[in-house]
Amino acid sequence: MPVHRVRLATGLVLLAFATVHLLNHAVGLISLAAMEAARPVLIGPWQTPVGLALLYGALSVHAGLALWGLYRRRTWRMRPWEAAQLLLGLAIPFLLAEHVTATRGATQALEVAPSYAVVQLAFWWFEPEKAALQAITLLVVWLHGVMGLHYWLRVRPWYPPLAPGLAVLVVVIPTVSLSGFLASGLEIRALAATPGYVEAVFAEARLPPDAAVFVARGAGGIQAAMLTLILLAIAGRLALAAWRRRRSRPRLYYRDSRVLDLIPGATVLEMLRAADVPHASVCGGRGRCSTCRVRTGAGGDQLPPPAAAERKVLDRIGAGPDVRLACQIRPAASLEVTPLLPPTATARDGFRRPGYLAGQEREIAILFADLRGFTRLSDGRLPYDVVFILNRYFAATGQAVTRSGGRLDKFIGDGVMALFGVDGGPEQGCRQALDAALAMQTGIAALSDSLRGDLREPLRIGIGIHVGPAIVGEMGWGDAKGLTAIGDAVNIASRLETLTKDHQAQLIVSEAVAERAGRDLSRFRREHVVLRGKLAPLPVRIVQDVADLERER
Hints:
Elements: H1 3-26, H2 32-42, H3 49-72, H4 80-109, H5 116-126, H6 129-153, H7 159-192, H8 197-205, H9 211-245, E1 251-254, E2 258-261, H10 268-274, E3 293-296, H11 308-316, E4 323-325, E5 335-339, E6 360-371, H12 374-378, H13 383-403, E7 407-412, E8 415-420, H14 426-450, E9 461-475, E10 482-486, H15 488-502, E11 507-510, H16 511-517, E12 525-529, E13 538-543
Parallel strand pairs: 1-5, 9-11
Antiparallel strand pairs: 1-2, 3-4, 3-5, 6-8, 6-9, 7-8, 9-10, 11-13, 12-13
Helix pairs in contact: 1-2, 1-3, 1-6, 1-7, 3-9, 4-6, 4-9, 5-7, 6-7, 13-14, 14-16
């Protein structure tokens, strides 16, 4: 089983134990006796041989993997939430050492019969300052667990809608637990004031006189051992890194802009963090979200094949053979990588997306439309009026595109660019583009009629449509990034739209579009037009009134 799955499984076991432990504390809101009565139900299963083996096995393995993670870490640069989770996790053994020794250790070594009355007396009667430390320990354990759970689930598509409800539980459970802990503490202080109560509780628990010494020594031993292991893991990593630095210095070439020295044994993501290079990684480098994915260039053939966990994520997003996860590859030789997502990528970007978003050549239909006489239309109007009319126009044309099955590429001033057949092929795209042209004209006519009291003349539109090969992909940067197309076919469609002015027509469509759409446009005038930058004339059909297309459907 992959290491990250083992870490996850053991973490879930420990979080389950912490949850029932907190719920048992919450019963203290009723009474101390209720807490003790609930203990066999909530905590009892964990005190059986199977429960103890599961609990302490998970604790040992989880702590061991944490130390192994420290040893494997090549850089201390990390995101704030990742640093917080790491520090909380490292603090847990030191905070819990005394509590574990006083409960589990004393039970086994001194044959003490533990009870909530004994524990609460120790906290609230003899050493009240440690009650505050216990509350802090409770919150540290809980926060570490739920942070790990959140950053595991956040890349699941079904998780975001449930997150607000789960956040309520994350707050409610420790709140009621601390309230129960406090209520039972106040109750035990009142009981302890009764003569003979403390002695009776200690006698029933068979608490020996040297129990405090045993707990102090045991806790100190656990803390010293944990500190030693942490220091050994860090020292081992530093020593290994120093030894490897003496060897040859391969390079990491990042996006044709940065050249970094390879850190021996480090992942590409760790190297980028060490160099303070922004790079997406929603899951913190655990190989779950795919947002850190890169395209490998020179040197990619020397990387070992993806392990099962990485292969699963790559298959989920339909990645090509040259795409790898930056958090999983550890190059030993020079390597060239190019990021595929911006540093601001979110968990949603890690979901499966069409392969063409990374860039593919596809045969598609392209439509350009432009509002005629816009300068005269806006002349003398208030800016608010111009924006109002344009937004109504954009709504009419945009709805025509999407309802016809196309993809709205962009609005350019008072112009529109749309793509058809990106998913369904050029034949379907040509039919959809012609349907969109008809829907556009219908929508513009309706809009013009509704605004006739505000317009000097009816709104008019010119449309050009062509089909051909184009490079389709997600282009741009940040919020301005989106699906678009570039290529000769796009330029031709734009020039056909411009020609509608010269021919006083609403639509000019290339002959290829009519043929691929399976539409008989023979009743419309056919011409061969020479476009700027082209030597061969292009056969087109000139449609004076787009409404006439209705007869050809």
